[in-house]
Backbone:
């Protein structure tokens, strides 16, 4: 397989800069290079490895791909990576929660403005389907997160509100149909 390499990821404050400079000098003194590459960390699983081969081919059409499988030196290294993944997923889940709040506000706004129509129901159904797809996608990419009860509860509330809104729209449509029928029968009677 060849020679072994050590990848070091570090994050220290920008200020004071002497910390960054000291680390840079020490690493350079040990022979480190700072390649001008974009770097990402992926969980090592079969789904990722399959997709990675296609991505590698795409990258190599235009540039250079360097891919290593690695393990942390200590348990704390693994914990730090898992923490980064958790923070990333938590951010995405928080965005979904915000979008759920916006979704529920939109339904309330439509009710207040009298915009309770079948067309609006259809648009809202598409939006809710999108939120559910987004949630499933985030969960599927998780390293340890299998679900999130807050998001699931919020999505359930969105679904309940949409169902109530759809019932209101159906009742309104039925009432309008009855009124039209009544007007037609009155005009035919005269």
Residues:
């Amino acid at each position: 397989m060849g020679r072994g390499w050590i990848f070091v990821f570090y994050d220290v404050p920008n200020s004071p800069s002497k910390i960054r400079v000291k680390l840079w000098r020490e690493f350079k003194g040990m022979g480190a290079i700072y390649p001008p590459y974009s770097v990402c960390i992926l969980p090592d699983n079969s789904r990722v490895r399959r997709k990675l081969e296609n991505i590698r081919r795409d990258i190599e059409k235009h540039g250079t791909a360097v891919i290593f499988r690695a393990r942390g030196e200590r348990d704390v290294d693994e914990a730090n990576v898992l923490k980064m993944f958790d923070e990333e997923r938590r951010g995405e889940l928080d965005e979904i929660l915000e979008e759920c709040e916006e979704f529920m506000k939109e339904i309330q706004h439509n009710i207040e403005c009298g915009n309770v129509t079948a067309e609006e129901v259809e648009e809202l159904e598409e939006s809710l389907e999108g939120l559910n797809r987004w949630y499933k996608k985030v969960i599927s990419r998780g390293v340890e997160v299998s679900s999130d009860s807050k998001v699931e509860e919020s999505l359930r509330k969105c679904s309940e509100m949409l169902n109530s809104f759809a019932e209101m729209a159906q009742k309104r449509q039925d009432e309008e149909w009855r009124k039209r029928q009544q007007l037609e029968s009155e005009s035919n009677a005269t």
Observations:
- The first helix runs from residue 17 to 29.
